[in-house]
Amino acid sequence: MKQASLGLGQSIKRTRRREFLGEMEQVVPWANLVALVAPHLPEGRRGRPPFPAEAMLRVHFMQQWFNLSDPAMEDALHDVPLLREFAGLGGWDDRLPDESTILRFRHVLEKHKLAEQIFQTINELLTAKGLLLKSGTVVDATLIAAPSSTKNQSGERDPEMKQSKKGNQWYFGMKCHIGADAESGLVHTVRGTTGSVGDVVEANSLLHGEEAEAFGDAGY
Predict the structure, then answer these.
(1) Which residues, other chains included, contact 61 with Cβ-Cβ below 8 Å and sequence gap of 6+?
(2) Where do the structural domains in the chain lie, given as residue ranges?
């Protein structure tokens, strides 16, 4: 794992994102989380060497903190030097995790029921540091498309995916329901459902119960 300098000596502007990642560098128990996750990751005896467990953990956390999809996280690693530095990854010419690698890592966390445990640990740290204020929550849902074709090996659509209509457009896939801190914009709750589940059905599950206010669009 390369030392993450966060570029603090390379820029005059101390942005909110830079300040936040600098804080997370200090408060998150990275070594403990790596010890929790590493035994479940592939050893990489064949093919390209795997990315370090800590690098993938840092990428995973940035996805949650900044509400980035897998493709958006891959693009951000290429476009934003600060995010590469925080993850301990190399420069422009070095190999970076693609969206498939990021997805596989998340599936490992889900398979071994580590994601919720890790997410809860980080949110407790954010709350203790006053970075997750809990005075208000913004709720929203985003559609994640899945292949609708039956021209595959099984000849069937994914049974866990359903149709959903947004405006006058139909979609096939799942929904990601998100609760975010109204002040900081940091995500504190994520729930996945089939695309047919209405936004309002999941609204209560996106609240942590300590809000003074909650915000949502017309779907709620």
Answers:
(1) 24, 28, 122
(2) 16-128, 136-215
DSSP letter for each residue of 159-173: TT-EEEEETTEEEEE
Residue where the block lists tokens 């929790």? 36
Token pair in block for residue 13? 């502007």
Report the alpha-carbon angle 22-25-29, nearest 5.
155
Task: Write the pLDDT tens digit of every residue in 92-149.
Answer: 567 899 999 999 998 899 888 888 788 778 777 777 777 665 667 777 777 777 666 5
pTM here is: 0.60
User: How many residues comprise the chain?
Assistant: 220
**Strand pairing of 136-145 and 213-215?**
parallel
DSSP 146: -
The mean of the pLDDT values for the chain is 79
What SS3 class is residue 20?
helix
